[in-house]
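Methods: example folding runs. The two proteins below were folded one after another, and each record is reproduced exactly as written to the output file, sequence line first and structure-token line second.
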Amino acid sequence: MRVYTVHLSSDPAADPLFLKEGFSFWAFLFPLPWALWNRLWIESAFWVLIGAALFVTRERLGISPSIITATGLAAQIIFAFEARDFLRARLKRNGWWQTAVIFERDQDAAVQRWYHRDGAER
């Protein structure tokens, strides 16, 4: 069972957005490109700063490459778990608001449940 949050825009003509919650595999594998693709500019700047800090730490302080790698991997894991929260915050900044949380097996079932909840057609 997956969890989806439903977001509505202030524009009544806009369709609702269904955002899947949980770990983001693509944000884990490619954090900076994923953040840029999703127009998360602050988070993209964060990744550039993290990379620069890890590089400077390795070059100037002589920290072991295995420690630098483990630190970068830990940052990627944390980012992947928080990725959906970053997307929800961007939606909120852009005038969308969260209206529901739906538990379903896939997105199609979540959309179906949203449009047919309480027997009312939306």
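Second run, written to the same file directly after the first:
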Amino acid sequence: MRFGYPVSLDVAGRRCVVVGGGPLAAQKADGLLAAGAQVVAIAARPSPGLREAAAAGRIELVARCFRAGDLAGVFLAIATGEDPVSNIEVAAEARRERVLFNALDDVVHCDFAAAAVVRRGELRLAVSTGGKAPALARRLREQLEVRFGDEWGQLVEVLDGARRACLPRTVTFSEWQRRWATALRDPQRLAERLAAGDRESVRDGVLRVMRTGSGPS
């Protein structure tokens, strides 16, 4: 099975390259930017979206065809197939430079399958089909975007604050896990309360469970 081990990469501050100049390249650049990457777009025919992003200083734009040496010092590269350059050429350069590589709709040359991602603050919901059915992954992402609102990102922040407030841990790890299971018995309800502006009460409830081991969150 290819791409059988899902991971989340830290690209923050790392140089990442998108090869391609159309709407797909702009989408990939936006996704990398959302993760904090330093994005370079290489495109013989850059789309208006890429030009605007470059003009705003969000990305570096190299307005020409891909060349050997373009992946030197790069952490990750994505080829969208929108420029007159062979994925084989970019993949070969990625191998030489030890760069993680993904080519859209070209599983053979990929090191990883890019998941369809819903971002809610620090919460990431990723759907992957191992590159076999990207349209299905996108459709499921659309459904998840409706299902999980911004309140779920708030819930992550509340839980992180409660966790740090209870450290260092004074109970066994199994008891720690049990308390978290109790605190998160109904995460949907917690998210709904956060959406209604009840943040302080949610935090206090989680803290009470984590500190005493009992009581509703």
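Comment on the second run: The chain has eight helices and seven strands.
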